[in-house]
From TrEMBL:
Residues binding substrate, per UniProt: 96, 106, 135, 221
Keyword hit for Ribonucleoprotein: no
This protein's name: 3-isopropylmalate dehydrogenase
Subunit structure and binding partners: Homodimer.
Sites where the protein binds NAD(+): 76-89, 279-291
Subcellular location: Cytoplasm
Length: 361
């Protein structure tokens, strides 16, 4: 199979991790007889510097014309003082909306090899953690009306959701639960927010179609607490754009590091958008310190969801396990000072970690 992938290296650690992701895809292609071709395009700070726009139309066009899009990360201190419409992050919103990828699947999976890197007690995480956060991605407060009053003494951002927007993402939540442990938790703030109350009404009207799924509701503040108190109670969480953003970073730390968490953003048709959940990590950019595994595992999600290459996807995941089994670690998953000092030459950088996964394949 010949797959056309638009790549958006972006800013900070983005180019380094995307490079490793593509090398791993190439290794999969070689092993299984597929060819992956890449069209690198500009977005974020890199695009601002080159064109003055965070998301040039040519980038969106190239993404829409591809079979799948791989994005590293955008943003950084250099562009932090620009007005909202000219910030690198605006490119992400434009891409997500332009590609109509409303469902962002963020699995929080703890590899048993990384139990030492998990900050929770072993009796809390038990033999591992496997949660899927389904984050609504093209609505809510990220896209609602925002602004300032005339004399610049007040500002507002608006959370708004329509019934069809809620229905389509909750449907993904139910369907995902049916492929897993049949548990769905809608996380919201229905004790305060009218949008959350609408989410609950819509979910109630849908639940009869999914009789095998055990459905629950939880307020987001409690969910944030329950994630560290007893994370294994969750199977699939479906939630709004901003709550999903926050809870997925929290869940990532339970798995050891945000450098391990992949994501897939999908719509009803057209290419999927694949990105690790972390950002451009300006503090470690250009130092060969970034963990490329989130991006590599994101490529595995791409193979599974966009190309139906289940065995190829599983081969990437198995290669990552093999590398972790052999004790190789980047700094973020090295554990505490003592564990790190015991690692010796098994403490590696971005490039070497990519090499190891390629070799394991
Ligand atoms: P961040 O995720 O970039 O970094 C948070 C912390 O995690 C940092 O200490 C960083 O070093 C570490 N980290 C992140 N990814 C890592 C990896 N692969 N390996 C090892 N350590 C890793 O979040 P931030 O610092 O809040 O944001 C930095 C910039 O990235 C901002 O401009 C923000 O807007 C942007 N951002 C972009 C995306 C995206 O493009 N999808 C996502 C989140 C943040
Ligand atoms: C993410 C990021 C983005 C988001 C930002 C950079 C716009 O945090 O992909 O998780 O909030 O969606
Ligand atoms: Mn985020």
């Amino acid at each position: 199979m010949n797959c056309k992938i638009a790549t958006i290296p972006g800013d900070g650690i983005g180019p380094d991790i995307v490079r490793e992701g593509c090398r791993v895809l190439d290794a999969v292609g070689l092993k299984f007889g597929h060819s992956f071709s890449y069209t690198p395009v500009l977005a974020g700070g890199a695009a601002l510097d080159a064109t003055g726009e965070p998301l040039p139309q040519a980038t969106l066009d190239a993404c829409l014309a591809s079979d799948a899009v791989l994005l590293g990360a955008v943003g950084g201190p250099k562009w932090d003082t620009l007005p909202g419409s000219k910030r690198p992050e605006k490119a992400l919103l434009g891409l997500r909306a332009g590609m109509k990828v409303y469902a962002n699947l963020r699995p929080a999976l703890m590899f048993r090899q990384l139990a030492d890197a998990c900050p929770l007690k072993s009796e809390v995480v038990g033999d591992g953690l496997d949660i899927l956060i389904v984050r609504e991605l093209t609505g809510g407060i990220y896209f609602g009306d925002r602004g300032r009053n005339a004399d610049n003494t007040a500002a507002w951002d608006t959370e708004a959701y329509s019934i069809p927007e809620i229905e389509r993402v909750v449907k993904i939540g139910f369907e995902s639960a049916m492929k897993r442990k049949n548990k769905l938790c809608v996380v919201d703030k229905a004790n305060i927010l009218e949008t959350s109350r609408l989410w609950r009404e819509v979910t109630e009207a849908m639940k009869a179609s999914y009789p095998t799924v055990e459905l629950s509701y939880m307020y987001v503040d409690n969910a944030a607490m329950q994630l560290v108190r007893n994370p294994r109670q969750f199977d699939v969480i479906v939630t709004s754009n901003m709550f999903g953003d926050i809870l997925s970073d929290e869940a990532s730390q339970i798995t050891g590091s945000i450098g391990m968490l992949a994501s897939a953003s999908l719509g009803d048709s057209g290419p999927g958008l694949y990105e690790p959940i972390h950002g451009s990590a300006p503090d470690i950019a250009g130092k060969d310190l970034a963990n490329p595994l989130a991006t590599i595992l994101t490529c595995a999600m791409m193979l599974r969801y966009s190309f139906s290459m289940e065995k190829e996807s599983a081969a990437i995941e198995a290669a990552v396990e093999k590398v972790l089994d052999a004790g190789w670690r980047t700094g973020d998953i090295a554990g505490g000072a003592e564990a790190r000092s015991r690692l010796g030459d098994k403490l590696v950088g971005t490039k070497k970690m990519g090499d190891l996964v390629v070799e394991a394949l």
